[in-house]
Structures are given as structure tokens and as C-alpha cells.
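=== RUN LOG ===
request id: a7f3
mode: sequence -> structure
chains: 1
length: 122
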Amino acid sequence: MSKTVMIIDDSASVRQVAAIALKAAGYGVIEAVDGKDALDKLDRQKIHLIISDVNMPNMDGITFVNEAKKLAAYKFTPIIMLTNDTGEYEKQGNQAVGAKVWIVKPFQPAKMLAAVSKLILP
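=== RESULT ===
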């Protein structure tokens, strides 16, 4: 059975690039446009990893991660944060909410897939 990755980004092109790479690598993909949309989609199925943008309308990535981690089913789900900001503050903030990896946009799909394969257990 393939593993499922949720991609959360308000940019359709970012979601598309990530989804194409993930599907080509054999992962199932669920897309969400912001944290609120993602929370609505969380309870429908098992998600093995979440890739979330930091800055989004309606609900940002940090708030989303905090909310998702309150749900028992997603307490230990690995999270990759996408950010436009290379600053140390962002890095520390992402680690504080439990993100395992942060990737600066624009990202290389191969780099993202390498992080995904390390974080998703076989």
C-alpha cells in the first residue's frame, strides 16, 4: 500500500510541483490550500507525512501544525515545513512546533523527496 503525503500551500504551482514529484515516487497525495482546509481533510484518512508552507491565508503553517499535533492520530506524524525565509528565527520556530525538516522555496523536488523518504517509515 502506498504512503500518503499531505501538501499544504496556498500556491497552486508549489502544490503541483510537489504532487508530481511525490506521485512519480509512488506516494498518494492530498492537497490543501491552507491550514484550515488541511484540518478539514485530516480526519478522512491516514496521512503518513505532512508538507506545509509557513505563510498562508486563513490559517498559517505553524498554527496548523499546533492544531494537528493536538489530534491523537497525527501527534507523531512527521512534518516538513516550506518557507520563503532563510532566517534563523524561522528555523527555530519550525523546530519548536515539531517540524522535522524545513525546506526553503523554491525547492528541488529531489531534495524534498529525499527528506520525505527519510521521514516516512517503510
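=== NOTES ===
The two ends are 10 Å apart (CA to CA).
The first helix runs from residue 12 to 24.
=== END ===
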